[in-house]
Every structure is written in C-alpha cells, then in structure tokens.
Amino acid sequence: MRRDLRQVAADALRRNDHRHALAGAIAGVGAAIAIGVMEWFSLESHYPLVIIPFATSIVLVIGSPQVEPAQPRALIGGHVVSTLAGLAVLHCTGPQAWAAAAAVGLAVLAMYVTGTFHPPAGINPLLVVSNNLPWSFLFAPVLAGALLLTAFAYLWHRWGRRRPWPQRWL
Fold first, then answer.
1. Is the confidence at residue 2, as pLDDT, over 60?
2. Alpha-carbon distance 124 to 112, whole Å?
3. N or C: which end of the chain has fewer CB within 10 A?
C-alpha cells in the first residue's frame, strides 16, 4: 500500500506536526545555502564539485546538529584525519584501487582512535587515492571547507534557528 506525498503531508498537518515540518524546511534551506557556497568554492578553487567532500557533512550538521559526529571536533578532525590517512596511503602505494579501499579502512580506524569519527569524511581517502590528489588537497578544500562549514553551522544554528550549537567544541 503506497501513500503519496500529499497524503503523508496532510496526515502530518492533521497530527499538528507543524514544528517538524518547519524544522525540516529550515534545515533544507540551510543545506541549500551551504551547498551553494560549496559550489562557488568549487568554481573558485578549480576543483570539480565531486572532489569537494562536504555535501553529506552539510546534511548531518544542519539536519542532526545534536549528534556527536556533527560536533566541530568530529567535523573538522574527521575530515583532516581521514584525508591524512588517504594521503599517507597514496604516498606509500600510489593510486591503486586496493589502496583506496585500505585507505578508507585506515581512516575509519584513525577517526575512531582520535575521537573524531565523522562518517561523511570516509569519502576523503577514497577521493585522495583514486584521483591521485596532492597534499595541498588537505588545506584546500578539506581544512578550509571544514572550517567554513563549522562557521556556517554556528551562524545558522545560533542566528537562523536560534538554537545552541555546538554542544561542545572539543
């Protein structure tokens, strides 16, 4: 039995679920703005948009700001640690398919050990090894992007949603 979108929306409104619908709309606007900034950064930095690994981080930080992987330590640290894992594996092995898989595994371990587990950052070592990316990728777009996303999320949650974020910085 399949229900169409209008029926689901009507049921939600009948349940007086306006706050969830509004929160979803606000999160969607925030994510769209952040993705637009990411697209601009892609054009300015001359990296193809598919190489800039922040779309899922944006969804996580805007849509589920209270979870541990959405906190700044995990957001910034996870992207940096996982990129470093990819760059280290690339340096030792070259751009091999098996090395990309190993780099992702190493990144998960490294994020876990350092307390910076951020699942969206798991794509970074795959991108690094598969595309034979230079060490400069660590600084731009990864570190710069993670810092900008953290600043955007802070402003979005504090000023736009009028909610506290982050729950903790470190």
1. no
2. 15
3. N
